[in-house]
Amino acid sequence: MNKEFSAITGDDTTPALSIIPSPDDSPILSPILTANPHIDPLAAIAPRTAFPSLADDVLARIADDMNRQGFGVATDCIHPDDLSALRRFIEQAVAAAGGEYVAFTGHDSIRGTFLETLALSPEFMQACRTIYRHGTGRTPPTVPFYQVLRCLSGKTGERHAFFFHYDSYVITALVPVIMPTEGKRGDLMMLPNTRRIRTTYFRNLVDKILLDNKVTQVALRRLISWGYLRPTRVRMRPGNVYFFWGYRSVHANEPCDHDKTRATALFHYANPHAGSRLRGVARGTPAP
Questions:
Q1: Domain range summary for the chain, segments of one domain joined by +
Q2: Helical pair 122-136 and 56-68, crossing angle rounded to 10 deg
Protein backbone atom coordinates (compact mmCIF):
# COMPACT_ATOMS: atom_id res chain seq x y z
CA MET A 1 0.00 0.00 0.00
CA ASN A 2 2.83 2.40 0.86
CA LYS A 3 4.37 2.00 -2.60
CA GLU A 4 1.04 2.74 -4.31
CA PHE A 5 0.44 5.73 -2.03
CA SER A 6 4.00 7.03 -2.59
CA ALA A 7 3.51 6.90 -6.35
CA ILE A 8 0.50 9.18 -6.03
CA THR A 9 1.74 11.68 -3.47
CA GLY A 10 5.52 11.57 -3.81
CA ASP A 11 5.68 10.91 -0.06
CA ASP A 12 7.01 7.58 1.24
CA THR A 13 5.83 8.17 4.81
CA THR A 14 2.99 6.16 6.26
CA PRO A 15 -0.22 8.08 5.60
CA ALA A 16 -2.29 9.36 8.46
CA LEU A 17 -5.96 8.49 8.30
CA SER A 18 -8.65 11.13 8.74
CA ILE A 19 -12.37 10.66 9.06
CA ILE A 20 -14.57 12.82 6.82
CA PRO A 21 -18.31 12.61 7.43
CA SER A 22 -20.31 11.38 4.44
CA PRO A 23 -23.83 12.61 3.66
CA ASP A 24 -25.29 9.66 5.57
CA ASP A 25 -22.97 10.33 8.55
CA SER A 26 -20.97 7.15 7.95
CA PRO A 27 -17.20 7.70 8.20
CA ILE A 28 -14.98 7.58 5.09
CA LEU A 29 -11.25 7.04 5.47
CA SER A 30 -9.28 9.54 3.34
CA PRO A 31 -5.50 9.07 3.60
CA ILE A 32 -4.54 11.06 0.45
CA LEU A 33 -6.18 14.32 1.55
CA THR A 34 -4.37 14.41 4.88
CA ALA A 35 -0.96 13.05 3.86
CA ASN A 36 -0.24 15.55 1.08
CA PRO A 37 0.47 18.98 2.64
CA HIS A 38 -0.22 20.74 -0.70
CA ILE A 39 -3.89 19.73 -0.71
CA ASP A 40 -6.38 21.53 1.53
CA PRO A 41 -8.89 18.81 2.47
CA LEU A 42 -11.73 21.31 2.92
CA ALA A 43 -10.98 23.02 -0.40
CA ALA A 44 -10.85 19.67 -2.14
CA ILE A 45 -14.41 18.77 -1.09
CA ALA A 46 -15.93 22.26 -1.08
CA PRO A 47 -18.21 23.35 -3.94
CA ARG A 48 -16.61 25.46 -6.65
CA THR A 49 -16.89 29.22 -6.20
CA ALA A 50 -17.13 31.89 -8.92
CA PHE A 51 -13.80 33.36 -7.83
CA PRO A 52 -11.11 31.92 -5.53
CA SER A 53 -10.28 33.34 -2.14
CA LEU A 54 -6.92 35.05 -2.69
CA ALA A 55 -4.46 35.61 0.16
CA ASP A 56 -3.80 39.15 1.32
CA ASP A 57 -0.18 39.04 0.17
CA VAL A 58 -1.28 38.00 -3.33
CA LEU A 59 -3.69 40.93 -3.50
CA ALA A 60 -1.00 43.27 -2.16
CA ARG A 61 1.28 42.13 -4.99
CA ILE A 62 -1.47 42.81 -7.53
CA ALA A 63 -1.89 46.33 -6.12
CA ASP A 64 1.88 46.86 -6.30
CA ASP A 65 1.89 45.70 -9.93
CA MET A 66 -0.91 48.15 -10.69
CA ASN A 67 1.22 50.95 -9.28
CA ARG A 68 4.44 49.79 -10.93
CA GLN A 69 3.40 48.65 -14.42
CA GLY A 70 -0.20 49.79 -14.66
CA PHE A 71 -2.00 46.47 -14.18
CA GLY A 72 -2.04 43.35 -12.03
CA VAL A 73 -3.25 39.87 -12.92
CA ALA A 74 -5.08 37.16 -11.01
CA THR A 75 -4.26 34.12 -13.13
CA ASP A 76 -6.58 31.21 -13.91
CA CYS A 77 -9.34 32.47 -11.62
CA ILE A 78 -12.33 31.88 -13.90
CA HIS A 79 -13.35 28.27 -14.46
CA PRO A 80 -13.46 27.05 -18.10
CA ASP A 81 -17.07 25.86 -17.69
CA ASP A 82 -18.16 29.36 -16.63
CA LEU A 83 -16.34 30.88 -19.59
CA SER A 84 -17.96 28.42 -21.99
CA ALA A 85 -21.46 29.28 -20.81
CA LEU A 86 -20.70 32.98 -21.09
CA ARG A 87 -19.28 32.56 -24.60
CA ARG A 88 -22.51 30.91 -25.73
CA PHE A 89 -24.50 33.84 -24.35
CA ILE A 90 -22.24 36.32 -26.19
CA GLU A 91 -22.21 34.41 -29.47
CA GLN A 92 -26.02 34.33 -29.48
CA ALA A 93 -26.20 38.08 -28.76
CA VAL A 94 -23.70 38.96 -31.51
CA ALA A 95 -25.48 36.70 -33.99
CA ALA A 96 -28.82 38.36 -33.13
CA ALA A 97 -27.17 41.74 -33.86
CA GLY A 98 -26.08 40.60 -37.30
CA GLY A 99 -22.47 40.08 -36.27
CA GLU A 100 -22.07 43.66 -35.09
CA TYR A 101 -21.19 45.45 -31.84
CA VAL A 102 -23.24 44.65 -28.74
CA ALA A 103 -22.98 46.09 -25.23
CA PHE A 104 -24.74 45.27 -21.97
CA THR A 105 -24.75 47.91 -19.23
CA GLY A 106 -25.79 47.42 -15.64
CA HIS A 107 -26.43 44.25 -13.68
CA ASP A 108 -30.01 43.82 -14.93
CA SER A 109 -28.81 43.34 -18.50
CA ILE A 110 -26.70 40.30 -17.62
CA ARG A 111 -29.05 38.78 -15.05
CA GLY A 112 -28.94 35.00 -15.02
CA THR A 113 -25.44 34.79 -16.48
CA PHE A 114 -22.13 33.99 -14.81
CA LEU A 115 -21.40 37.73 -14.68
CA GLU A 116 -24.23 38.17 -12.19
CA THR A 117 -22.81 35.30 -10.14
CA LEU A 118 -19.33 36.82 -10.19
CA ALA A 119 -20.61 40.26 -9.16
CA LEU A 120 -22.29 38.68 -6.13
CA SER A 121 -19.25 36.59 -5.21
CA PRO A 122 -17.98 37.53 -1.71
CA GLU A 123 -14.48 36.42 -2.71
CA PHE A 124 -14.42 38.67 -5.77
CA MET A 125 -15.75 41.67 -3.88
CA GLN A 126 -13.24 41.08 -1.09
CA ALA A 127 -10.41 40.98 -3.62
CA CYS A 128 -11.40 44.38 -5.00
CA ARG A 129 -11.86 45.85 -1.51
CA THR A 130 -8.43 44.59 -0.44
CA ILE A 131 -6.74 45.94 -3.57
CA TYR A 132 -8.47 49.28 -2.97
CA ARG A 133 -7.20 49.37 0.62
CA HIS A 134 -3.63 48.50 -0.39
CA GLY A 135 -3.62 50.96 -3.27
CA THR A 136 -5.29 53.98 -1.71
CA GLY A 137 -4.70 53.56 2.01
CA ARG A 138 -8.40 54.26 2.54
CA THR A 139 -11.25 52.19 3.92
CA PRO A 140 -12.98 50.49 0.98
CA PRO A 141 -16.60 51.57 0.51
CA THR A 142 -19.45 49.07 0.69
CA VAL A 143 -20.87 49.56 -2.79
CA PRO A 144 -21.87 47.22 -5.64
CA PHE A 145 -20.07 46.94 -8.95
CA TYR A 146 -21.04 48.89 -12.01
CA GLN A 147 -20.95 46.33 -14.81
CA VAL A 148 -20.43 46.54 -18.57
CA LEU A 149 -20.10 43.72 -21.10
CA ARG A 150 -18.63 44.89 -24.43
CA CYS A 151 -18.68 42.68 -27.51
CA LEU A 152 -16.67 44.13 -30.41
CA SER A 153 -17.50 42.58 -33.75
CA GLY A 154 -18.05 43.64 -37.35
CA LYS A 155 -17.54 47.12 -38.74
CA THR A 156 -19.37 48.83 -35.87
CA GLY A 157 -16.97 47.24 -33.39
CA GLU A 158 -14.10 49.25 -34.83
CA ARG A 159 -15.92 52.50 -34.01
CA HIS A 160 -15.66 51.61 -30.33
CA ALA A 161 -11.89 51.08 -30.46
CA PHE A 162 -9.08 53.57 -29.84
CA PHE A 163 -11.25 55.79 -27.63
CA PHE A 164 -8.94 56.96 -24.85
CA HIS A 165 -10.65 57.77 -21.58
CA TYR A 166 -10.58 57.76 -17.79
CA ASP A 167 -13.07 55.59 -15.93
CA SER A 168 -15.31 57.09 -13.27
CA TYR A 169 -14.41 54.35 -10.81
CA VAL A 170 -11.16 53.80 -8.93
CA ILE A 171 -10.69 50.12 -9.79
CA THR A 172 -11.48 48.40 -13.05
CA ALA A 173 -11.48 44.61 -13.07
CA LEU A 174 -11.45 43.30 -16.63
CA VAL A 175 -12.53 39.74 -17.40
CA PRO A 176 -11.67 38.68 -20.97
CA VAL A 177 -14.21 36.19 -22.30
CA ILE A 178 -13.47 35.97 -26.02
CA MET A 179 -10.13 37.23 -27.36
CA PRO A 180 -8.86 36.82 -30.94
CA THR A 181 -5.51 35.06 -31.17
CA GLU A 182 -4.63 36.13 -34.72
CA GLY A 183 -4.58 39.39 -36.65
CA LYS A 184 -5.84 42.42 -34.76
CA ARG A 185 -6.50 41.12 -31.25
CA GLY A 186 -8.03 44.14 -29.55
CA ASP A 187 -5.30 44.44 -26.90
CA LEU A 188 -5.79 46.79 -23.97
CA MET A 189 -3.64 49.93 -24.26
CA MET A 190 -2.94 52.29 -21.39
CA LEU A 191 -0.94 55.25 -20.21
CA PRO A 192 -0.95 54.13 -16.59
CA ASN A 193 -1.49 56.27 -13.53
CA THR A 194 -1.36 59.66 -15.23
CA ARG A 195 -3.43 61.42 -12.56
CA ARG A 196 -4.36 61.15 -8.91
CA ILE A 197 -7.83 60.68 -7.48
CA ARG A 198 -9.33 64.16 -7.65
CA THR A 199 -10.73 65.67 -4.49
CA THR A 200 -13.69 67.22 -6.36
CA TYR A 201 -15.89 66.18 -9.21
CA PHE A 202 -15.16 69.50 -10.94
CA ARG A 203 -11.45 68.64 -11.24
CA ASN A 204 -12.40 65.23 -12.58
CA LEU A 205 -14.75 66.82 -15.10
CA VAL A 206 -12.01 69.13 -16.37
CA ASP A 207 -9.72 66.13 -16.90
CA LYS A 208 -12.37 64.35 -18.91
CA ILE A 209 -13.19 67.38 -21.05
CA LEU A 210 -9.51 67.78 -21.91
CA LEU A 211 -9.27 64.12 -22.88
CA ASP A 212 -12.69 63.31 -24.38
CA ASN A 213 -12.52 65.53 -27.44
CA LYS A 214 -11.65 64.99 -31.09
CA VAL A 215 -8.41 66.99 -31.06
CA THR A 216 -6.92 65.10 -28.13
CA GLN A 217 -8.11 61.73 -29.42
CA VAL A 218 -6.55 62.25 -32.86
CA ALA A 219 -3.34 63.58 -31.31
CA LEU A 220 -2.98 60.54 -29.03
CA ARG A 221 -3.55 58.10 -31.89
CA ARG A 222 -0.98 59.81 -34.09
CA LEU A 223 1.61 60.14 -31.34
CA ILE A 224 1.25 56.43 -30.64
CA SER A 225 1.41 55.44 -34.32
CA TRP A 226 4.51 57.61 -34.82
CA GLY A 227 6.20 56.09 -31.79
CA TYR A 228 6.39 59.25 -29.68
CA LEU A 229 4.09 57.70 -27.08
CA ARG A 230 4.63 54.12 -26.04
CA PRO A 231 1.56 52.90 -24.16
CA THR A 232 1.53 49.75 -22.11
CA ARG A 233 -0.06 46.97 -24.18
CA VAL A 234 -1.79 44.16 -22.35
CA ARG A 235 -2.46 40.96 -24.26
CA MET A 236 -5.22 39.30 -22.30
CA ARG A 237 -6.04 35.63 -21.86
CA PRO A 238 -9.49 34.28 -20.90
CA GLY A 239 -9.41 32.72 -17.45
CA ASN A 240 -7.38 35.58 -15.98
CA VAL A 241 -8.72 38.74 -14.36
CA TYR A 242 -6.86 42.01 -15.01
CA PHE A 243 -6.98 44.82 -12.46
CA PHE A 244 -5.95 48.43 -13.09
CA TRP A 245 -6.59 51.91 -11.74
CA GLY A 246 -9.23 52.84 -14.32
CA TYR A 247 -9.86 56.23 -12.77
CA ARG A 248 -6.19 57.20 -12.90
CA SER A 249 -5.13 55.64 -16.20
CA VAL A 250 -5.78 56.78 -19.77
CA HIS A 251 -6.80 53.63 -21.61
CA ALA A 252 -8.46 52.25 -24.73
CA ASN A 253 -8.61 49.04 -26.70
CA GLU A 254 -7.13 48.35 -30.09
CA PRO A 255 -9.57 47.23 -32.80
CA CYS A 256 -9.98 43.61 -33.80
CA ASP A 257 -10.63 42.17 -37.25
CA HIS A 258 -14.20 42.54 -38.51
CA ASP A 259 -14.75 38.78 -38.70
CA LYS A 260 -13.62 38.24 -35.11
CA THR A 261 -15.30 38.91 -31.76
CA ARG A 262 -13.61 40.47 -28.76
CA ALA A 263 -15.72 40.28 -25.60
CA THR A 264 -14.71 41.64 -22.21
CA ALA A 265 -16.64 42.09 -18.99
CA LEU A 266 -15.83 45.14 -16.88
CA PHE A 267 -16.44 45.40 -13.15
CA HIS A 268 -16.05 48.99 -11.92
CA TYR A 269 -15.61 49.55 -8.19
CA ALA A 270 -15.76 52.71 -6.04
CA ASN A 271 -16.79 55.99 -7.64
CA PRO A 272 -15.05 58.71 -5.56
CA HIS A 273 -17.59 61.32 -6.66
CA ALA A 274 -20.76 59.27 -6.25
CA GLY A 275 -22.27 61.79 -3.82
CA SER A 276 -21.33 64.93 -5.76
CA ARG A 277 -24.21 67.31 -6.44
CA LEU A 278 -22.42 68.69 -9.48
CA ARG A 279 -22.12 65.17 -10.89
CA GLY A 280 -25.82 64.66 -10.35
CA VAL A 281 -26.67 67.93 -12.11
CA ALA A 282 -24.35 67.12 -15.02
CA ARG A 283 -26.06 63.75 -15.46
CA GLY A 284 -29.56 65.11 -14.92
CA THR A 285 -30.00 63.19 -11.67
CA PRO A 286 -29.20 65.56 -8.78
CA ALA A 287 -27.77 63.86 -5.70
CA PRO A 288 -29.93 64.07 -2.57
A1: 15-46, 56-283
A2: 50
